[in-house]
Amino acid sequence: MGTSIELGSDNTGGPVNLDVEELLATRLLVQGNSGSGKSHLLRRVLEKSAGVVQQIVIDPEGDFVSLAEAFGHVVIDGAAYSDAEITRLAARIREHRASVVLALDELEIENQMRCAALFLASLFEAPANQWYPALVIVDEAQLFAPAAAGEVSDEARRGSLAAMTNLMCRGRKRGLAGVIATQRLAKLAKNVAAEASNFLMGRTFLDIDMVRAADLLGMERRQAEQIRDLERGEFLGLGPAISRRPVAVRIGSVETRAKSAVAGLTPLPLSTGEEMAALLHAEPQSPPIQPDLWSAAAEPPPRATESKLQEHIAAQSQPSKEDCGSSMSREDVSQVVRTVLHEMSQEEGCTFHQSAALFQDFSVRCRMQGVKTHGLDAAEFRKEFAIAVAGLDLDADDGQVERLLELADTVPEELLTPFLAIGKAAIAGEACPDDEVLAILYGTRSVGRARRMLDYLERCNVVVVRTDFSGRRSVAIPQLSLATTVA
């Protein structure tokens, strides 16, 4: 199989080729204003070299995911993975020589930079026996290697810039050939741009970019004007992998399309002005009400099972008829206890009261129901109250609730309610409560304290918290092999 692919045709209609093997050693820089055809050019290179070399695409707009269906690329949604998972995926990509598209379109720019930096760094740090040749295509490279500080944090900018510099400066020995595309050379860090030996310059209008492009192509300043006259899909190429002299290239056709591609004008709606005004000023449709798993009114609150409460009651002295009333049985006592716990757990702000005050209130309410000896001491009450507040379903017969309660015995009492709420969500396969809900269950208004509470549980090896690049969190309980869904 040859190593050259056809980019397109020159002014005479003859083919212009790109030597992939030479490209691996010399790298490529593509420049052109928005609409000049940069993404089309990259797509042509990817499609024609798909069967020749491994391809790794950093795609900030999600435009290259269509390669998966046609050419078998694996699409990795950067927003769905944590830092450690992105690093591990990149290592496996080098090991197994998979062609992938890292789609970052669901992330904000700062998280795009962080994700790309971790991904590229892991590719770069692969062991020597995995230094297989691969094209690393980075679209909109000025986002990941900015020439000046922007609105992102210095940490994100430095990490991304360092990863891009390593790719272009030191990637060749590790088999990584950078192919970077940018709208403006002036916005791209010079250390990154300077390492490319092959250039494809498309249409641009700003004088500073035209002059810089002309310098890279070895053209005189007065010849830079022709860069402004290039049509969409036309590029001036130069480099050992393309041509030893500047050559005009009209990029050939492609098989796949970007998701944002627009074929032409779309007919306008036929609505009259009055109809359109009515649509614009219509009342917004209310979304369907989602059940609130953590509020009191979401559903009939689960009650403690008979067996659990009877265990506590049996451990104490059995209430006499004189204490409880002539007709009250142990089952009646259990029912009263369950009812009182349920009522207290549904009261707004109940988690903000001191446990001693709650226990006293519980005892008073039981006596008002005719139960003078409820059978729970202060410690047992705190656990039963936490179960009621968390909404844990003790009637489940699959053993998971019982194992959760056994593990809860190792958790400090003040953390018991939020831990059981997390456990309930994990058992049900639901999302973890957010920071505000956890804070209320913890008995505070501070979401920072709720986060520190989760950190403490993780340091105690009770839970494992996973947060992806979109900020979505899931919490696992490894000892129970359970995890909440991502939210």
From TrEMBL:
Q: Which residues form a coiled coil?
A: none
Please note every region of biased composition (Basic and acidic residues): 320-329
Q: Which domain of life is it from?
A: Bacteria
Helicase HerA central domain: from which residue to which, for each copy? 10-77
Region listing for Disordered, in residue ranges: 288-329
- Mind telling me what this protein is named? DUF87 domain-containing protein
Provide the species name. Answer: Aurantiacibacter arachoides
